[in-house]
Amino acid sequence: MFKHAVAVAVTLLSVASSVKAHGYVQEVTLGSAKYTGYLPYQDPYYNPVPQRIIRKIPGNGPVEDLSLMDVQCNGWSAGGSSYDSAPAPIYGTVAAGSQVKLNWTTWPDSHKGPMITYMARAPSDITKWNPGKSAVWFKVHESGKNSAGKWAATDLLYASNHIYTFTIPPKLKAGQYIIRHEIIALHSAYSYPGAQVYPSCIQVQVTGSGTALPTSFVSFPGAYTGSTPGITYDVYTNTGTYPIPGPAVWTGGN
Ligand SMILES: *[C@@H]1O[C@H](CO)[C@@H](O)[C@H](O)[C@H]1NC(C)=O
């Protein structure tokens, strides 16, 4: 039984990597604690299924229809709605002001684009909370194309060993949050639909004595449409500044 499960996983893995070599977050470091990500080609085949702090994803592929719930935490509408932001059974712990490191799997160099991170404060137990279409998300970090023309999701990611780093806002009020992190790949974004969103939702308990909370929020789906600057964008001909989609980064009462 176990052998069979592993064989299926290995087969799926090789099919997936030959057809669609995209990616996902495979490891999360909160301060100094390391957590394995949700591994879509392995975890479902184990009994019991390993408990992760990342909400489950169907695979390494993107979301292109930005009106779907899938764009929140990476879902799979074609396979039903069971993946759509289904809570994970556990969460990690991280102090406000500390660094979060997200380790991405192999990422194709054609898939240039920004890396963006949002958070949402859970009103109750995060292992049961599904934000739906409510406006609860605020942006905490973004990285697009720098002045040297280097892209976050390819150049900078490769230069840092596939590790993306951001800091939990130092004065953020303690509590449970979903960290929604994404790469938006722009290789087909010259028309809509075309931009490919690769979201991940990580459940954390933020600790600390801060009292700051943002006052404006966006929803997913909702924050991005075909007419959002940076969603429809010709990455091959635009040599200027790249407008990173979504609201301004919340400076966290700093
Ligand atoms: C990223 O995660 C993979 C899989 O766990 C691991 O092999 C690799 O060493 C990690 N990369 C870094 C830079 O820690």
**Bound compounds:** 2-acetamido-2-deoxy-beta-D-glucopyranose
- DSSP helix fraction: 10-25%
Which strand order does the major sheet show? 3-9-8-5-6
CATH class: Mainly Beta
Please state the average pLDDT score: 90
CATH fold annotation: Coagulation Factor XIII, Chain A, domain 1
Contiguous uncertain segments of 5+ residues: 1-19
- Beta-strand share of residues: 15-25%
- How many separate structural domains? 1
Instruction: Report the structural category.
Output: alpha+beta
Radius of gyration: 18 Å
Count of DSSP E strands? 9
Q: What is the 3D shape?
A: globular
Helix-strand string: HEEHEEEEHEEE
Largest sheet: 5 strands, mixed
Tell me what the CATH architecture is: Distorted Sandwich
Number of helices: 3
End-to-end C-alpha gap: 54 Å
Pfam families: AA9
GO molecular function: hydrolase activity; metal ion binding; monooxygenase activity
Organism: Collybia nuda
EC number: 1.14.99.56
Task: Please outline the helices and strands.
Layout: H1 2-19, E1 25-30, E2 33-36, H2 70-73, E3 92-95, E4 99-104, E5 115-121, E6 137-143, H3 152-159, E7 163-167, E8 175-185, E9 196-207
Parallel strand pairs: 3-9
Antiparallel strand pairs: 1-2, 1-4, 4-7, 5-6, 5-8, 8-9
Bound molecules: 2-acetamido-2-deoxy-beta-D-glucopyranose (NAG).
Residues 26-27, 103, 161, 163 line the site of 2-acetamido-2-deoxy-beta-D-glucopyranose.
